[in-house]
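Any chance you could type out some protein's one-letter sequence along with its backbone structure tokens so I can compare the two?
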Amino acid sequence: MSAVLEPRTIEEAAAMLPSAGRVQFVGGATELELGAPLGPVDSVLRTSGLSRIVEYNPSDMIVVAEAGVTMARLQATVRAEGQTLALDPPMPDRATVGGVVATGAFGPRRARYGGVRDLIIGVTIVRADGAVSKGGGKVVKNVAGFDLPKVACGSLGTLGLVASATFRLHPVPEASATMVVRGLGPERVVQVAVGLRDAQLEPTSVCALRDDGKYDLGIRFEGFAAGVEQQARKAAELFGCYRAGDAEAFWKRHDEVRTGGPLRVKVAALPTDFARIDAALPQSLRVAFYPTLGLGFAAGTAFPSELATARASLREAGGSLVVQAGLPPGFDAWGPVPQSFPLMERLKRNFDPERRLNPGRFLGGL
């Protein structure tokens, strides 16, 4: 049976790791199935005790929070001062700062604000040997020339414990409007996405939800009230969309795709290749696609055999398919390793030479 480690401070975590053997890190447990099946572990380190919002000065529009702070709590803290962290990963009541950084989790607002890599400006990592490394933020102490905040994003805890992170903030938007156009084919979804750019409109979120073979497209504008109203009117004129009477219902449908079902996959391709993605994903799957980003998600109740063919089709066009949950035996969660894999191996050797941290979970068995 694995030992359970529950450090209350970063210093305690650093003291525990050298003798902890093979370690699994657990935050809010929202993405524990992401990646390859975990190898045997000797210890499970839970980050719930690392729960401090270390520093927040509204005038700086920067916040520093430890790994176990939930996204909901962090947002409530900064929103009380009229600010927001422009990350909207699924399940914010459970998703933690450390987990969001480690998985690179994001939501539809990435269309405007970018992902974790764009909003993180500092990080503290505890390495397998207990060394505490800091990068970015107010203290610049990078490791062997690596951009530590960027390295941490999406590393799945295989390089070290993401113990705290520093993020830049944005003002809370004054107004929001979601415009919807229903019953689109994938080609028309791409046309609208391109049209938004050509018209110099700046939505914070663009999402296509599959329903009976067609797509409902939601376009969310946020910002100053006058600007939101102007952009909403322009979108209506150009694309025939209308203001959603219940915007929350549309985004709830989106959330259900991101979190519902025992099977969840993530797909990526050029935004203009959305028709390929649509054709590749079986109709039994619910789909949420961000057409301005070329990223999407699908959910279902069982793993369809067609996903092997879907992955091959996407790879032909330079895309990818990753199984986030519901991985069947014999199917690689990640697919073939990319050309950058030697760099990933070098990072692993530098940070965790004994391969003790979340062993085997990452791409290529790292």
Observations:
- The longest strand covers residues 175-184.
